Amino acid sequence: MRVLLLFTLLFLCHAKPYKLIKPIKPINIMELMKIHDIMQQDYRDDDDDDDDDDIFDDFDDNFILDCPFGCQCSRRVVQCSDLGLTSVPREIPADTLMIDLQNNDITEIKEDDFKGLTNLYALFLVNNRISKVHPKAFKNMDKLQLLYLSYNLLTQIPENLPKNILELRIHDNKIARIQKEAFKGMQSLHVLEMSANPIANNGIELGAFDDMATLYLRIAEAKLTAIPKDFPSSLTELHLDYNKIGKVEVEDFNRYKNLMRLGLGFNQIKFVENGTLASIPKIREIHLDNNKLKKVPPGLNTLKYLRVVYLHANSIGQVGVNDFCPTKTRVKKALYTGISLFANPVKYWEIQPPTFRCTSGHRAVQLGNSRRK
User: Fold this and answer.
1) Does residue 337 surpass a pLDDT of 50?
2) Which is it for the CA torsion 147, 56, 72, 25, positive or negative?
3) Handedness of CA 39, 119, 85, 157 (dihedral sign)
4) In Å, what is the CA distance from 261 to each residue of 188, 215, 218, 301?
5) Cβ atoms within 10 Å of 44's Cβ, excluding its own
6) Hey, what long-range contacts does 207-213 have (CB within 8 A, 24 or more apart)?
7) 281, 256 in Cβ contact below 8 A?
8) What confidence tens digit (pLDDT) does each residue in 215-236 have?
9) Long-range pairs of 3-9 with CB within 8 A, sequence gap ≥ 24
10) Is 151 exposed, middle or buried (0-12, 13-18, 19+ CB in 10 A)?
11) Using CA of residue 70, residue 76, residue 82, residue 85, what is the dihedral sign?
């Protein structure tokens, strides 16, 4: 069974180009299935060594025969992308594991659109015209773990989302407010992508992220002017690029002790308050490029595991000999593999050689004059 499912997923990887003017990165279905091991969701637990003759059994013949008109169906996968559909197809087989409805013209998700699909694991509704989702649309979908609603016209997060979702991608919609009840009970949600929505700081209600165990959160291309202080404390990755954040203060990271990757590029950050970085001792990678910093953020030399820091395209005029490396060699647990300082007004020939003594080599440092105008 898994052999045929593999070929089905390979076929899905070659979907037609997205129709929006704005380029949209196609979803790599095959990669997703590999990461989430979706083949293991088959409760029949077939052996990998089953004979090929057993592939085409009655169960699967019936599944294919029940396929909605115009769609491609095989091994509990229903592929209905790029068909110009204006609504969810009727009579989707009850044993369906994954539904691909990308690149259509669906405007609404109704109460009974997915009724009876209790085994559904992944649902892709990317690039439609969905502006309304019925509050009971996902009722009894307890096994749903991947839900992609990006590139639609939603103005709010759908109500009553399944509690067991692992990954929710809802970027590039029209959501301006995150209600307190939006993610209630969603303790399994590890990946939340909400970029390219008009979300401002006052649009995030207090307690909206309570009880969540989210590891990856991205709200880029929004209207944030400061780092929100109510995100899940479990975060290991936080990406707030392309916002309007003007400064980074000590209290900004007090909750995020487990943070390993931080993205703050393309903001308007003028300074990082002294002592701020001490709150994120496990950090591995920091992006502060394309901001308005005039000096290297204080405290980088205290971060034992920091390997990558992007500071290019700022207004940094000087680099001190101890800005990146600790005075005691043994304090640093991991060498830098990437430090970018190009497109800054710093005179790189004046930087003292010991400044980068804790890097993995000269190729780990990118220097250069600020670009000529």
Assistant:
1) yes
2) positive
3) negative
4) 20, 10, 11, 17
5) 8
6) 207/180, 208/178, 208/179, 208/180, 208/182, 208/183, 209/183, 210/180, 210/184, 211/184, 211/185, 211/186, 211/187, 212/183, 212/186, 212/187, 213/187, 213/188, 213/189
7) no
8) 999 999 999 999 998 899 999 9
9) 3/52, 3/55, 4/55, 4/60, 4/74, 4/75, 5/39, 5/42, 5/74, 5/75, 5/76, 5/77, 6/39, 7/74, 8/72, 8/74, 8/75, 8/77, 8/79, 9/33, 9/77
10) buried
11) positive
Write out pLDDT tens, residues 262-295: 999 999 999 999 999 999 999 999 999 999 999 9
- Confidence (pTM): 0.84
- The tokens for 331 are 């304090």
What domains can be seen in the chain, in order of their start residue?
1-167 (3.80.10.10)
